[in-house]
């Protein structure tokens, strides 16, 4: 009897595992097809100066236009894409499309500021990455003055020495760098000082609760003062209310990104938004 029960439990367990594994394999197969068919679409979220609401830049955010299920957010496929290495090709398509589109806006005479592109560290470890970046910039005819790359603090801290080495090569070709989701990655101040970076992006979890939670408020203030004392730019992510924006300005952070200003928008909608006046 115990044996039967054991077997049933075991079988239940394997069925469950099989289903998960099956889901993963399906998703992986679909991601491979999505890469071949270029099903990814770049959305852009404007970033603003809180004092005058002027756009200072835009972050490129990938969406997957799935033929059956429609628009899939990055949280649903980036983790698997990173596990399987498929993120490398996805990020390259995003980089090509984002730079081309951004240069189109610049050519239209629009004030779009600096384009921010998210990079996976896996991407950075590819040996031909720098060559790819140079070629993509050349093809898009965009100036590095208009470019910034973002890497998350967590990914940088997984291998800080390698990160410094790779980020320095990007700096050397004139690209500015930001540390994304700052405050969540447990980096030490001594490392931040050694990173060849230009900007800290305060993680949205702190910003969103800054007015209701004392710890988040203090952390937000602390990150702003770290940025100021290390001579780094600082931007707050996830700004959803006027009160949050006012709190930020009062504490020395003038750049913001969040639903209070703009949601991530598709190219057509954003172009209309930028050209209306
Ligand atoms: P992230 O780089 O930290 O991007 C900010 C995320 O916060 C975006 O989510 C954006 O839509 C969301 N957001 C912005 N303002 C607000 C707000 O006021 N309220 C709320 N609730 N959310 C806000 P999204 O587009 O779902 O992207 C999630 C993450 O996926 C990104 O976080 C980034 O780490 C990753 N990601 C997105 N695009 C790419 C890409 O092309 N390549 C790579 N490697 N990662 C990407
Ligand atoms: Mg980002
Ligand atoms: Mg972030
Ligand atoms: Mg994030």
Automatic annotation (TrEMBL):
What range of the parent protein does this fragment cover?
477 to 753 of 753
**Where's the EAL domain?**
24-277
Write the protein's name. EAL domain-containing protein
Source species, domain of life: Bacteria
């Amino acid at each position: 009897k115990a044996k039967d029960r054991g077997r049933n439990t075991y079988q239940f367990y394997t069925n469950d595992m099989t289903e998960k594994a099956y889901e993963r394999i399906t998703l992986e197969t679909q991601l491979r097809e999505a890469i071949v068919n270029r099903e990814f679409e770049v959305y852009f979220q404007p970033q603003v100066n809180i004092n005058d609401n002027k756009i200072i830049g835009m972050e490129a955010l990938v969406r997957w236009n799935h033929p059956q299920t429609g628009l899939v957010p990055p949280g649903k496929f980036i983790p698997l894409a990173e596990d399987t290495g498929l993120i490398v090709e996805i990020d390259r398509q995003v980089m090509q499309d984002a730079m081309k589109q951004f240069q189109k806006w610049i050519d239209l005479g629009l004030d779009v500021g600096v384009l921010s592109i998210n990079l996976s560290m896996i991407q950075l470890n590819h040996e031909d990455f720098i060559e790819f970046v140079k070629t993509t910039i050349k093809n898009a005819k965009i100036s590095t003055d208009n470019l910034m790359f973002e890497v998350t603090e967590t990914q940088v801290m997984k291998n800080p020495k390698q990160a410094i080495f790779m980020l320095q090569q990007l700096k050397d070709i004139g690209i500015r760098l930001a540390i994304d989701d700052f405050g969540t990655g447990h980096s030490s101040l001594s490392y931040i000082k050694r990173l060849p970076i230009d900007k800290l992006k305060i993680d949205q979890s702190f910003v969103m609760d800054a007015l209701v939670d004392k710890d988040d408020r203090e952390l937000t203030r602390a990150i702003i003062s770290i940025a100021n004392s290390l001579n780094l730019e600082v931007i707050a992510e996830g700004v959803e209310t006027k009160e949050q924006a006012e709190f930020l300005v009062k504490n020395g952070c003038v750049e913001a990104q969040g639903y209070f200003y703009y949601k991530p928008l598709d190219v057509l909608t954003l172009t209309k938004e930028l050209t209306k006046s």
